[in-house]
Amino acid sequence: MALVLLGLSTGVVAVALPWWEMAAWVLVPLGLARATSALRPGKGNAAAGAGLVVGLVLVTASGWAVPAAWLAVNGEQVRCALVDRTAVSTNGQGGRNRYEHHFDCAGERVRYDVARTGHVAEVGETRDLVLDPARRVPPRLGPVSRFPVLVLLLLCAGAAAFVVLVAAAKREPAPPKPLTPDDGFL
Questions:
Q1: Range(s) of the domain holding residue 95
Q2: Quick one: which of 99, 125, 97, 126 has its CA closest to 113?
Q3: What is the mean pLDDT of each run of 10 residues along the chain (186 residues)?
Q4: What is the distance between the terminal CA atoms of the chain, rounded to a whole angstrom?
Q5: Which residues contact 59 (CB under 8 A, 6 or more apart)?
Q6: Are residues 95 and 125 in the same domain?
Q7: Distance (Å, rounded) from C-alpha 17 to C-alpha 136?
Q8: For residue 177, is it within any domain?
Q9: Which domain of life is it from (predicted)?
Q10: Do residues 25 and 80 both lie within one domain?
Q11: Is the overall model pTM greater than 0.85, yes or no?
């Protein structure tokens, strides 16, 4: 249960601690695989595989849905003017993989990053950005859909169903340990 909650919380924690998302990609799926197979000793690889898949889905969906849902519920839509656009190489070989856009939003300078596509607006044009009131969640182009809220609710329901199914499934006892002469059976 704790690992399921950990997987769901990945998106929340990753906002404050960006390195956490990388650690969660490893810890949650492997931990769920181990915990699921431990609860189902007779099922072996199938139980571990189910835990691994559920863990990967939890981490991936949570990492996307939590920040987007937060902005959909709490974000404020602001009209901003693009003041600067810069291509940034992320592979160290001069390739342009990411673009930084600097917007002026009512006197506040806000950075908005775009991977690969690069073109959000020309310098001087205005766009609607949805900003987190605390400025911890990266901004998104507005308007923001409520779809991530639905995804997050479905993710929570699916995670709860997984926990209930694993806990309620018929448990098979572990196979008996073979007797050896040291066990005193002779």
A1: 76-141
A2: 99
A3: 58 59 67 68 66 78 83 92 82 66 92 75 91 89 88 85 75 68 61
A4: 45
A5: 7, 10, 21, 24, 25, 28, 29
A6: yes
A7: 10
A8: no
A9: Bacteria
A10: no
A11: no
Closest CA to 85 of 124, 143, 135: 124
12 assigned to some structural domain: yes
- Reduce the secondary structure of the chain to three states and give it as a string: CHHHHHHHCHHHHHHHCHHHHHHHHHHHHHHHHHHHHHHCCCCCHHHHHHHHHHHHHHHHHHHHHHHHHHHHHHCEEEEEEEEEEEEECCCCCCCCCEEEEEEEECCEEEEEEEECCCCCCCCCCEEEEEECCCCCCCCEECCCCCHHHHHHHHHHHHHHHHHHHHHHCCCCCCCCCCCCHHHCCC
Torsion of CA 52, 55, 61, 67, to 10 degrees: -150
Number of domains the chain is built from:
2
> Residue 170 carries which side chain, given as an amino acid letter?
K
Determine the pLDDT at residue 125. 93
* Residue at token pair 């507005």: 142
Report whether 90 contacts 97 (CB < 8 A): yes
